[in-house]
Amino acid sequence: MAALDTIIQHVAVVTAVFTTLYNIPLLAAGIRLARRTDGALRAQLRPAHGSPVALPAGRSVFVLIPCLNEERVIANTLRCLLDGQPGVRVVVVDDGSDDAMCIRDSVTLVRRTPPAARQGKGAALNAGLRAVRERAEAEGLDPGRVLVCVLDADGRMTPGAAATVAGLFDEPSVGGAQLAVRIRGRHRWALRLQDFEFWAMSALTQYGRVLTGTVSMGGNGQFSRLSALDSVGPRPWSHSLTEDLDLGISLAARGWTVTSTTAAFVSQQGLTSPRRLLRQRTRWFHGHMSAIRRLPELWSRRAVTDVAVAGRIELTGYLLVPYLVTLPTSVVQQYVVGRVLFGDGGGLPGLVAGSPWLNLLAWQGLSLAACLISALLYWRRTDDLPAWKAICFSPAVMVSLNLAFAACWCALWQIALRRRGWTKTERAVEVYKRQAAARAAERAARRA
User: Fold this and answer.
1) pLDDT bracket for residue 9 (50, 70, 90)
2) What is the mean pLDDT of residues 387-410?
3) CA distance 217 to 113
4) 420 within 8 A of 413, measured Cβ to Cβ
5) Which CATH number is 257's domain given?
6) Phi/psi at 432 (nearest 5 deg)?
7) What are the distances in angstroms from CA 372 to CA 17, 181, 367?
8) Mean pLDDT comparison of 45-49, 319-323, 333-337, 338-342, highest-scoring range
9) With 0-12 CB in 10 A as exposed, 13-18 as middle and 19+ as buried, what is 72?
10) Range among 205-209, 338-342, 417-421 rated most confident
């Protein structure tokens, strides 16, 4: 037992060192970038109340929206997109849907039928990209000045986001850009916790990765230069469960940088069912952990001449997070709790003298302090949650970490069994804000 305690202590030290050297510097750099750019963390909410802005002259933006049974949300998404992003051209990819989607005449519709359909999001995006390439070639557009945006069927970008992001591509080395993500429906505690994850920790660390040009590509609010996609190949999106992460690695291996902006963001629906949330996060971890196989490509001799060393190191650290942080932390946590409950309280170095329970509480206090700092950062970045509520959310954040632990182990199990499956995230019906305003005005008129 003493030998096992020693191993657990070494694992805890390695995890702590990796977190200190990787996560904390990224978070600090992201906070600094956000404050330097906007003056205050909360200032980044302003884009949501902005006005639509036309695209810069000479720029073309095609928005790809892959759809599989998205009747509940696609109509409102298209209204929001066409109202708030003047000049963009929309390509909807119907990936073998069973429902009847309402598509505007101004939108290009690409229909896929079995057996080609329902082969994953990457395959649907590649089908839509073929239509974009044909359109760009027919119009004689310069691939270097054409942007391809990936938007989920429930995604809504802030007004003028496409024009804002287009300016980032004035730098020739930029091949991609990713918007920060917010979760709608934050009056529900489960969705609030998901917004906390995206808008506080993920967004701020993403801003930190701007310095290395290795911002992680996401599946919603993702922008790529068409010439960068062409450099990856005819089908730049892979069959991976996280085709967005794979694309980011492919761009980095070819010398392109990926950046972000604090002047725009994209919002999406969250999940309220713990089972569906676990299934979604398991898929994300599965793709993330499987991407470790891309490391040789990233560090190949060709890539060494194209990608900055700092960028390669950062991407390597990012791919190692599940293996060096999530999995080890879950093991250490459960082992120590078990030793306190059923053993003599070993497994962790003593922070305080006395009872093993006090030592366990001391270590848990450190975790709670980290969650409290994160909650205060989230409070500084949002305007719809008072400070006291943010503080009260700290214990819930600690509890929610167990979902990540479970998802990571489920993903590891699936990888070991070579299982691979893509389950579509179900949507909820929402009312577009202009529709809601019109209905409110109509009710007021009837009352008058």
Assistant:
1) confident
2) 90
3) 28
4) no
5) 3.90.550.10
6) -60, 140
7) 21, 21, 9
8) 319-323
9) middle
10) 205-209
Reduce the DSSP state of residue 244 to 3 states and report it. Answer: helix
Instruction: Confirm whether 190 is domain-assigned.
Output: yes
Q: How far is CA 24 from the centre of its chain?
A: 19
The reply to whether 114 falls in a domain is yes
Statement: residue 188 has pLDDT above 60: yes
Q: What gap in Å lies between CA 146 and CA 226, rounded to an integer?
A: 6
The structure tokens 């557009």 sit at: 141
Phi-psi bin for 345: left (phi > 0), alpha (psi -120 to 50), beta?
left
| Whole-number Å distance between alpha carbons of 366 and 16 | 12
- DSSP for 378-427, written as a single string: HHHH-SSS-HHHHHHTHHHHHHHHHHHHHHHHHHHHHHHTT-----PPP-
Question: Among the ranges 13-22, 257-266, 398-407, which has the highest mean pLDDT value?
Answer: 257-266
Domain that holds residue 91: 45-274
Type of residue found at 29: A
CA 1 from centroid of its chain's CA atoms: 41
Whether 18 maps to a domain, the answer reads no
**Closest C-alpha among 266, 259, 6, 292 to residue 160:** 266
Does residue 352 lie within any of the structural domains?
no
Q: Which two tokens stand for residue 243?
A: 């085709």
**In this structure, what token pair is assigned to residue 405?**
């632990």
179 close to 216: Cβ distance less than 8 angstroms: no
Q: Is the pLDDT of residue 333 over 90?
A: no
Q: How far apart are CA 15 and CA 334, in angstroms?
A: 15
Quick one: tokens of 274? 């713990």
pLDDT-based confidence at residue 440 (cuts at 50, 70, 90): very low
Residue 369: predicted pLDDT: 84
Q: What is the 3-state secondary structure (H, E, C) of 190-219?
A: HHHHHHHHHHHHHHHHHHHHHHHCECCCCC
What is the distance between the alpha carbons of residues 74 and 65, in angstroms, rounded to a whole number? 9
Joined tokens for residue 187: 């009056």
Count of domains forming the chain: 1
Look at residue 218 and tell me whether its pLDDT is greater than 80: yes
The percentage of residues in the chain with a pLDDT greater than 90, rounded to a whole number, is 62
The single-letter DSSP state of residue 179 is -
- Give the span between the Cα atoms of 411 and 428, in whole angstroms: 26
Rounded to a whole number of angstroms, the CA Rg of the chain reads 23
Q: What is the mean pLDDT of the chain?
A: 88
* Three-class DSSP category at 38: helix
